Amino acid sequence: MPEPAPRPVVVFVGLRKNPLEHRPALEAAHRCGFSVALLAGKPPAGLPGALLAEVRAVDPHDTEAFDAAVDAVATAHTVAGVVAWGDAGVEPAARAARRLGLPGIAPAAARLARNKYLMRQALADRPHLIPRFARVRTWRDAVRSLADIGLPAVLKPAAGSGSKGIFLLRDEQELRPAFDELTRLTGADGDGIFRHDRGELILEELLRGSEHSVEGFVHRGEVTVCGITDKTTTEPFRLELAHLHPSALPGAARSAVHALTRETVLALGFDDCAFHLECMYDPGTGARLIEVAARAGGDFIGSHLVGLATGVPFHENVIRVATGQAPRLPDQPPLHAGLRKITAPAAGELVRIDGLDTALGVPGVQHLVLDRSPGTTIRLPPEHFSSSLLGAVIATGETGEAVRGTLEAAAKALRAEIAPPS
To answer: What InterPro entries does this protein's entry cite (predicted)?
Structure first.
């Protein structure tokens, strides 16, 4: 028999870090009839070779090297689309799609998605969508901005990702240590995610209400909202602790969030891409934007929660939209799916996590994933913003309350032993 014709490829710019999260992306491409060409700075080990056309280790931020890699993939394969799975890949993916004449968000809109100050500037003529804000590059900027905006406020990086570096300011004395820590985090020796926006911060009013994210797509100018996710965050650094999908917001609140979403993504010029929008809802002031990313939601929202709740894998729609096809909507009443993070009780060295069997045995638990192994050094915010998150539990149920109960029972069963720092 003749060899089957090679599949067209979708270029993946990076992957989510956890295999439980990035494997569904590769499988979604396969189910949609594509193979994957992965371009990543550090491709993870253990990838399923049968789903990959090729893997190239290339820094997406090295423009010359990345563009050369894109050209090489396009020479060797028929490329049908380009997808970014993390914030660092959004702008390189937009440039690659434009370079190859494929569907994708315009590079100018991708830039707005990656810089919160530019995002707010683009929406400045729509003050009902956004908090009051100011750009901060110097200590003088910080003092002047806080005087203008007032307390309580938030100081954070303009190009942050994964809740890195969010400082709540409730009195003036908190401004200096927050500014100094963020200057270090975003400086020349800080996190690489800030390499194109070094030292750029944003100070804004603290929005009140409940926190939510919106998962959806823009395809040929039409916005599709696939659902709203309710979020629980920690204080004072606003690390995401739990998610529940779909939202428990009442109908009028959901309508307000939908309206905010449509107006925001169209005003920013998003098209032919997935989006993950974060907002606050307060009955008195309505829905207000925190930020919007031009990619699928991470933290297992896109890879698991939406699909478990709706029956339609979100990542398949990511692939469809990236290859010029309309997203497919669920045709069944939603179930409920949620996630709860496992957090370290203290800084030190992780010795072990007990109670795994008990947690997995709680009815409704679907997955339990551990992100830290014994011997890992655990640091707490603001020294480090992610090492204290040890893993997560994912669960489903017929109601949101049932899912919350399952997650709470599973989280209580897990006990992390941390040895004091040496």
So the answer is: ATP-dep_AA_Ligase, ATP-grasp, BL00235/CARNS1_N, LAL_C2
Q: What is the mean pLDDT of residues 89-118?
A: 97
Q: Check residues 309 and 163 and name the one with the higher pLDDT.
A: 309
Q: What is the pLDDT of residue 1?
A: 56
Output the DSSP codes for 175-204. Answer: HHHHHHHHHHHHSTTS-GGGTTSTT-EEEE
Average pLDDT over residues 379-389: 87
Which of the two residues, 407 and 329, has the higher pLDDT score?
Answer: 407
Domain boundary among 113, 145, 163: 113
Per the structure, the complete domain to which residue 30 belongs is given by 9-113
Cα gap 126→199, rounded to integer Å: 27
Calculate Rg over the CA atoms of the chain.
21
Provide the pLDDT for residue 191. Answer: 66
| Three state DSSP letters for 131-164 | CCEEEECCHHHHHHHHHHHCCCEEEEECCCCCCC
φ and ψ of 273, to 5 deg: -160, 160
> First and final CA of the chain: distance in angstroms?
64
Relative to beta strand 415-419, strand 348-354 is antiparallel
User: How many structural domains is the chain composed of?
Assistant: 3
C-alpha distances (whole Å) from 123 to each of 146, 156, 223, 258, 419 are 21, 19, 18, 17, 48
How buried is residue 20: exposed, middle or buried, by Cβ count under 10 Å (0-12/13-18/19+)?
Answer: middle
Contacts of 2 (CB under 8 A, 6+ apart): none
For residue 421, what pLDDT is reported?
A: 81
pLDDT of residue 5: 73
SS3 21: helix
CATH number of the domain residue 44 falls in:
3.40.50.20
- What pLDDT shows up at residue 239? 82
Whether residue 131 contacts residue 202, with contact meaning beta carbons closer than 8 Å, is answered with no
